[in-house]
Fold this sequence. Notes:
This protein has a single domain (29-218), classed as 3-Layer(aba) Sandwich (Rossmann fold), CATH 3.40.50.150. The chain contains seven helices and eleven strands. It has helices spanning 30-40, 62-74, 90-93, 98-101, 108-116, 166-175, 189-198; strands at 3-7, 13-17, 22-23, 50-56, 77-83, 123-126, 129-134, 147-152, 176-184, 201-206, 213-218. The strands form two sheets. It has an eight-stranded mixed β-sheet.
Amino acid sequence: MKRHIITTADGSKTIQIEDWNEQYHSIHGAVQEAQHVFIKNGLHVVTTSEIHILEIGFGTGLNAFITFLEAEKLGLTINYVGVEAYPVLEEELLQLNYPSILNAESKADYFWQMHGIVWEVTTEVSTNFKLTKQQKFFDEIVDVEAYHLIYFDAFGARVQPELWDEAMFVSMYKALKKDGVLVTYAAKGSVRRAMQTAGFKVERLPGPPGKREMLRAAKHSTK
């Protein structure tokens, strides 16, 4: 499928898949979306200082890099697992501007290190950030009570509905530790109902720029 780099509304770049009219990040602002959905409404609500995170859709590495920067600022220890079936090409990565748009040029080497590490091997990116990239399909995830937080950043249900059904969220529910949370930019009623059927308690939250709502789903220890 034909892909090209576009600039989103906040100046940050992302990858667009022309055949699907789908982007890796919001056209209303790639960085703004990541910070609002995954940091403000995800990372910041986890109460432990050592956090195990699963990202569904490692993609450009934007969510991982922002999480790395935030962990340094807050003194958090992060164990990050990013799952991606189709890794982004090096020539695409070279066109992205995340370190500069985030005013983190001094940390740019960490962004490139994240993309350069060997797949399937846990790597210490820094003393407080470990990254494991797994190249596989999302329905191959079989982890049980392994994560405090899931960033669910798959392509939208319009183009890949199979990634947003009850079976997928059952596996996500199993992968979370008790009292863990899953956050996503999505807000469709069918997605919310699939989460609820899987066992999650779901809340609608204000969305990032350009989107009215997003979803946060919690796995409660009483279930």
